[in-house]
Amino acid sequence: MSTFLKLASKSWNNLKEIHTCSMLKTINFTQEHNELRKTVRKIIEKNINPYVNKWGKQKSYPIQDVFQKLGSAGMLGITRPSKYGGLGLDYSFQVALLEELSNINCFGIINSISIQTDMATPALARYGSEELKQEFLPPIHAGEMVSCVGISENHCGSDVANILTKAERKGDELIINGGKMWITNGGEADWMCMLANTRTGPRHKNKSLICVPLNSPGVTFNQIEKLGNDCCSNVEYFFEDVRVPVKNIIGEEGMGFMYEMSQLQDERLAASIT
Question: What residues does the Acyl-CoA dehydrogenase/oxidase N-terminal domain cover (predicted)?
Answer without folding.
Answer: 30-144
